[in-house]
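re: ur msg from earlier - yeah i can do the zinc ion complex, just paste it... oh wait u already did. ok heres what im feeding in:
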Amino acid sequence: MNFDFSQVAIDTALALKVPMTIAKRNCAIVFAHVKGVIHIAASEDTAGEVKYSLLRYLPEHDSISVEIVETETIKNSLNKVYGKRVNRDGGLTEESTAVRMVRELLSSAIINKASDIHLEPSDTSSRCRMRVDGAMQSHSQYDSADHHQMVSRIKVLADLNISERRLPQDGKFSFYSELQSRSIDIRVASIPTKHGEKITLRLIGAMELPDKLESLGFDEKSVKSIHENLKIAQGLVLVTGPTGSGKSTTLYSFLKHLRKSEDLSLISLEDPVEYEMAGVTQVGIDHQRTSFSRALRSALRHDPDVILVGEIRDAETASIAVRAALTGHLVLSTLHTNSAVTVPQRLVDMGVPAYLVASTLNLVISQRLVKKLCKHCQKETDATSYGRSYRTDGCKYCMGSGYAGRAAVYEIMEIDNTIRRMVVSGQSEIDLHRYLQKNKVRSLWQEGKKKVNEGVIDAVIAERVIGRVDGLTQL
Ligand SMILES: [Zn+2]
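and the outut:
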């Protein structure tokens, strides 16, 4: 297979070990350090010498491998990693070390698709970790002086009191992302620790929504069924799963699909706004001042066709959402349950009468997010409880991690008349599950098994996230 630089996840912490001027002069980027081998992408002209020019900046290694990549491609990557700072005369602008370090840190987080950045001081140094795909990853190490400077810089950006180091503070600022050519919001929280201030940054709205539902992991048949259900003018569409299962990404993708028709009025109530979306009235819910239920009540006065409610977490919100779904609105929301078949009973437990659940619910999707295997280094392995499985060793494409992104594993329950009758007559989730099985609707576990067998996801992680056996089928 030819080397394809566009598929590489660049190890930005490694790349940034080389100063920008040196990297640009050599038209080269150090992008991976896997099993003792350092991988460098360089242009045809510089590839021969680049090893020697960059050597003093590289960490300890056994060997260096240089890949020749088109000059333009490298220049683009260099701009993403280091930022493009050109002044009016076309020269590079000067900036202080702290300003540069904070900018590089934020750019790295955006390139790595991190949701949070943690700057944690210890007695002699400070470590920086990022949350990527839901898991914490080490990013870099700073000495205490640099940590202190970066903290001050971040506090200035977020309009916090720099001299106050003994009390927790919070604030926010905007950062222009070169990668996405737009500003993203960053929420800042500082807290004093024994060794100095710890800073946590949350990147809001930095995520890119996929253009197609297929990219989230839905197959063609499921996408068709989802689109059919989104055409229905009224009713309830719910996405369920534990925290971090990608529920809101799925909901936003539905909204993105609905946004295509210009004759709909769309309102979304979110906590917080995670993706910015033109054409949608987005309301961030500040729980100290208001609640989903109050915001939902006022949203209904704005004549919406479609309302996205971030989460149904109390009886009042459930009741208003169901009434809205009954009176000519399409309501999209999330609910915290483990499977699709438990949703009707959960709504009943929240005080919604069973006949209203039956008449408003249109579609329920239960989902989990599971790390995707890097397709460049996967190999078939011994069967697990899922049967045929694959494992990865880590390669230059995946920063040696063996993974690349995450895939949604889901089950889809379309509410037909039989299910409506079953809900009204109070039949159990096991009955619902049996009915779905009879109709060849894949359960979460069956869908997970399929994705493991196809080599899309990791069996070990799937077993942890979804379970070793199909829980409901065993009953
Ligand atoms: Zn790999």
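cool cool. The radius of gyration is 25 Å. ping me if u need the other ligands too
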